[in-house]
Fold this protein.
Amino acid sequence: MPPQAATQIAGEVAYEGKFQWLTRLGFAARGLLYILIAVLVVRTGRTEDLTGALEYVGHGAGKFLLAGLAAGLATYGLWRLSDAALGTEHPGTEWKQLGKRAVAGGIGAIYIYLAFKAVRVILAGRSGAMGTEQQADTVLDLPGGELVLLGAAAILAIAACNQFYKALRCRFMRTLQEGASAKGWIKWMGRLGYAARGVIFFVVAWLIYRAAVDHKASEAGNLEKALDVLRGPFLLPIAAGLFLFGTFSLVEARYRAIHKPPVDGVKRKIEDKVTR
């Protein structure tokens, strides 16, 4: 094998290894945030959303952990965006695959934004982002703002149904590497975790729906307010479910099958078009 070819292959293997490692770090970051939210509920009764969890971590020596979380969240977001753009996890141009890629793009954008807020916390001590109520108030001031909020509520309701569907059919097990995909305890951890997230998504969708119908931004809410709504007999079971979802994310960090973006194929297509 020519030395240049061997060097190129070695570089590709190293790149793939770094990409996979960083993406796994992203799954771990997501898992740690959900575990922290659940632990705060159980131990102190305090409710937080993902941004609040980032701010909770970002004090003193916790900034070093937050820097790792920011890197992981950013890479996880990029991995999702690569799926949307290149079909990394959902190749093909059928409507079903394109729909999944569109969802991946939305998820990727959310986690890139979370990474940005984590960096803001490191630099300024807080995320500096508007809360859900402020965002809803801004939207309601726009022409047709109620319809925008109703659309957001509908999207979240669909996302909640998707979480329940995953919990019912256990489709999340298909993405795990051989061995982990056959373990019953991992399956039930994922099922209960996705079910808890489904409940949260439904509550948030209801809050945004009420804000739109009543034209009151104060009724809108996020994960934190959803947990407040569930205070009482439902709070601890949902917190336990979020803890299980976070733990399942850690399992994914170790065992999920992660594909390298097909950048070489895209590069070849571009070169072919340029040379024509």
Observations:
- Residues 1-127 form one domain.
- Residues 169 and 191 are 9 Å apart (CA to CA).
- The radius of gyration is 20 Å.
